[in-house]
Automatic annotation (TrEMBL):
InterPro entries: AB_hydrolase_fold (IPR029058), SidJ (IPR013744). Coiled coil: none annotated. This is Serine aminopeptidase S33 domain-containing protein. It comes from Pichia inconspicua. Pfam families: DUF1749 (PF08538).
Length: 316
């Protein structure tokens, strides 16, 4: 935790405009220039580490304060990690870099300095879901400095960024952008930023050729959840799980085309995940992408209740 005394005091962050109350908690400095925020009440030996999605950072996902309160009642703390990819940093990053930084936090939390936490789960929102699957199935296990085992995973709003981008780009534009990205990668210019004519169609932030291809190409490094993938693809991700997994798909997700059959897609993931799939997984009716304003009144509580039931089952 920060040496300036925040470990023993309450730190306060202002919420987004639609939320009035400040949020109390503790800031952890888990690595050089990297922080994580533990919601009050803090200090439980069991922890859910929350990884947000593209453009998100601390406190931008509205249901977290309520989730923290619910988790505290079953003996868990909620900690949101800030990684280099937070806010607009994702455009020049990768899932591997994210996983390495998540591992830094996990190692810190298991240390005495970090509270000697005993149970740690990873909960991803949006592209944070890719981080969760990547950490559980693709992060190299042979380097303990870059990997520390976790106990379970939770996915909230696991959407396809490729399909989401396709709502704002024609097939021709998408293919053209991928041709540009592939050429840059072949020329070893993978870290260079894509032309703005493409990036302006997807959040308008700097995105390098590697990350564009990772997000937009079929079976790119970020392409875990697309509806047009086959069962073999899901076997290579969900099928490699060795920890329990809860999946909460937002029923009214604005980044998912209405013609996508969410229940059918979830069934494919369930088939690959097998016994690691939680029976509490569901399509959360009326939930927007981040279960924020505009969702039906009971959507947030439905999602939180599912998380608590899943976690409670782990200790039985």
């Amino acid at each position: 935790m920060l040496s300036c005394g925040l470990s023993n005091e309450t730190s306060v962050f202002r919420m987004a405009k639609h939320q009035v109350e400040p949020v109390a908690g503790v800031i952890h400095s888990y690595a050089h220039n990297k922080i994580a925020f533990e919601f009050a009440p803090q200090g439980n030996k069991k922890v859910v580490v929350f990884v947000a999605g593209l453009m998100d950072g601390l406190m931008t996902v509205p249901y977290l304060p309520h989730l923290a309160i619910a988790l505290s009642k079953v003996g868990y703390s909620l900690i949101q990690i800030e990684i280099t990819s937070s806010h607009i940093g994702w455009g020049t990053g990768s899932l591997s870099r994210d996983s390495n930084e998540i591992a830094q936090l996990v190692n810190y939390l298991r240390s005495e300095t970090g509270g000697a936490r005993e149970i740690i789960g990873l909960m991803g929102h949006s592209t944070g879901c890719q981080n969760t699957i990547h950490y559980l199935t693709r992060q190299p296990r042979n380097d303990t400095k870059k990997f520390s085992p976790i106990d379970f995973g939770i996915l909230q709003a696991p959407v396809s960024d490729r399909f989401a981008a396709a709502q704002n780009m024609s097939e021709e534009e998408m293919e053209e952008s991928l041709e540009v990205a592939r050429k840059m990668i072949q020329e070893k210019r993978h870290k260079e930023i894509m032309p703005s004519k493409y990036t302006n169609r997807f959040f308008g932030v700097p995105i390098n050729a590697y990350r564009w291809n990772s997000l937009m190409a079929i079976r790119g490094d970020d392409d875990f959840f697309s509806p047009d993938l086959d069962q073999t693809d899901f076997d290579s991700t969900f099928g490699k799980l060795d920890k329990p997994l809860l999946v909460l798909y937002s029923g009214a997700d604005e980044f998912v085309a209405k013609e996508i059959d969410k229940e059918e897609l979830m069934q494919k993931w369930k088939t690959s995940a097998g016994s690691n799939w939680s029976p509490h997984s569901k399509v959360v009716k009326g939930a927007l992408h981040n279960i924020g304003p505009g969702s039906t009144p009971d959507a947030e509580q439905d999602a939180i209740d599912s998380v608590i039931m899943f976690i409670s089952d782990l200790s039985t």
